[in-house]
Design a protein that fits this description.
Blueprint lengths: L7 H6 L23 H15 L19 H15 L14 H13 L3
Helix pairs in contact: 2-3, 2-4
Organism: Amborella trichopoda
GO molecular function: acyl carrier activity
Pfam families: PP-binding (PF00550)
């Protein structure tokens, strides 16, 4: 018992079934693929155009939220990128996209057929 709460590990260690939901692992993907400079440039310019902002403010490390993009903006950006590159990212493909570099890397990965 820790702070009045039993941990899941203790329940499992003693074979006791608990009503406490199991923690699930987040699916993570580690990829060494980095987008080509041309891909990154197109992604940056597309994002700037979609958000009606100066392209200079869109750097690889910039988060979409920092650019003022809400979830609808992000969906529209991803749709514009799909159209621009002639690829299909799919509904779940953009779930882990948070930065401009992430978006460019995903496009590169989809273009290569790895996604």
């Amino acid at each position: 018992m820790f702070g009045g709460l039993r941990t899941i590990a203790n329940h499992q260690a003693y074979g006791i079934r608990s009503h406490i939901p199991r923690l699930t692992r987040m699916k993570t993907s580690i990829s060494c693929s980095v987008a080509l400079p041309e891909t990154l440039q197109i992604v940056q310019s597309t994002i700037a155009k979609q958000l009606s902002i100066e392209e200079i403010t869109v750097t690889p490390e910039t988060n979409f939220a920092d650019l003022g993009a809400d979830s609808l903006d992000t969906v529209e950006i991803m749709m514009a990128l799909e159209e621009k590159f002639g690829v299909s990212i799919g509904e779940g493909g953009a779930e882990n996209i948070s930065t401009v570099q992430d978006a460019a890397n995903l496009i590169e990965k989809v273009k290569a057929g790895d996604a």
